[in-house]
Amino acid sequence: MSGHRVAFDSLLTALAPAVWGSTYLVTTEFLPPDRPLLAAAVRALPAGLVLLAITRVLPSGVWWWRSLVLGTLNIGVFLYLLFVAAYLLPGGIAALVMSVQPVVVLLLGAALLGTRIRLVHVLACLLGAAGVGLLVVGPEAALNPLGIAAGLAAAASMATGMVLTKRWGRPKGVGVLAMTGWQLTAGGLLLAPAALLVEGLPAHVTGTNLAGFAYLGIVGALISYALWFRGLERLPALAVSFLSFASPLAATVLGFAVLGEVLTPIQLLGALSAVAAVVLVQVTAIPPAPTAPAAPEREPERADAGLTPVTVSGEARHAAGGR
Predict the structure, then answer these.
(1) How far is CA 63 from each of CA 68, 96, 199, rounded to the nearest angstrom?
(2) N vs C: which end of the chain shows fewer Cβ within 10 Å?
(3) What's the whole-model pTM score?
(4) Residue 15 phi/psi, 5° resolution?
(5) Of the candidates 153, 148, 139, which has an alpha carbon nearest to the alpha carbon of residue 104?
(6) What number is the average pLDDT over the span 252-272?
(7) Band of residue 313 on the pLDDT scale cut at 50, 70, 90
């Protein structure tokens, strides 16, 4: 894989966590309050059903239970805990807590994928976490213990799902959209009954609520998860996990642009540190260029090289006296 290809795939994949960074703003400003299960179900299930209708491909064999496992980890559990953290924590703090995801991927990748833990990856984890910390933590930061626990569990859930997705791959002949639909549908079917039993439907749904649900379902699930799983297939799992730092970056930029928050020099330094960590890991994901094979040694030219041999006909030898 060339460096240009890695850069393109990385930028395209980074769009997914950048979109997910808007989840915190959309949750607090557009959705009905205190309904994380409903928000997660509405985000996942319609998008999954749309992809199933488009692709018309269902799992077979072991992929029934694998899709259920991946859908539970990547979608069901992750989205529910993400919305719990979004309701209980400021967006930046929730993103900071979830920045432990690359560390979990690093450890699980070594255990399940056989990837080697390199010093550069450990340094990138520290650099990225420090950058996110500088980016989002301020003196007014509210640290709700339940929200922090939900954020950590969400990061661990998705990290496990990423590594298993990388380990199991994709069934032959099945596209990324179909497999994304399997996972979104499985996670949504897990969330929908729980939402109805535990939270119920809101008594009143506004146009703002519907706009928020539509955005999260179409952009935040259908499109972004397809890009995410495409990138996970083409790039190392650790490299993809570091792209999740785009989430707190997007959350901070949206806070500045929409909510009128002020960016301090410390936050800008944190943003640069997080970006540096991402670039560092993406660069190490580029395999070294293959060395050109050595040219074969040429035989030394003879003195008569290039001369055309002369064939003497029988008639000529007879004319010359048989010599």
Answers:
(1) 8, 34, 31
(2) C
(3) 0.79
(4) -60, -30
(5) 153
(6) 76
(7) very low
Tokens of 98: 């979830």
User: Which are the contacts of 4, defined by CB distance < 8 A and separation ≥ 6?
Assistant: none
User: How many CB atoms are located within 10 Å of the residue 294 CB?
Assistant: 6
Task: Give the largest CA-CA distance in the chain.
Answer: 123
The answer to whether 58 and 120 have CB atoms below 8 angstroms apart is no
CA separation for the pair 18, 220 (Å, rounded): 10
And the tokens for 236?
């190392």
| Amino acid making up residue 171 | P
Phi, psi of 321, deg, nearest 5 = 85, 25
**What is the number of other CB atoms lying within 10 angstroms of the CB of residue 195?**
21
Average pLDDT over residues 131-148: 70
Structure tokens at 219: 């952009």
CB atoms within 10 A of CB 94: 31
- Contact by Cβ (8 Å): 186, 130: no
Using CA atoms, how far apart are residues 147 and 24, in angstroms rounded to an integer?
Answer: 13
Are 51 and 224 a contacting pair, CB within 8 Å?
Answer: no
pLDDT range class, residue 112, cuts 50, 70, 90: confident
Q: Above 90 in pLDDT, residue 138?
A: no
Distances, alpha carbon 250 to alpha carbons 92, 165, 218, 276, in Å: 10, 25, 18, 16
- Give CA–CA dist 210/98, Å, rounded: 27
Tokens representing 114 are 């056989």
Tokens of 53: 């209708």
Give residue 71's identity as a one-letter amino acid code: G
Q: In the structure encoding, which two tokens stand for residue 284, read together?
A: 């190490």
Question: Are the C-beta atoms of residues 244 and 17 closer than 8 Å to each other?
Answer: yes
Share of the chain above pLDDT 90, in %: 40
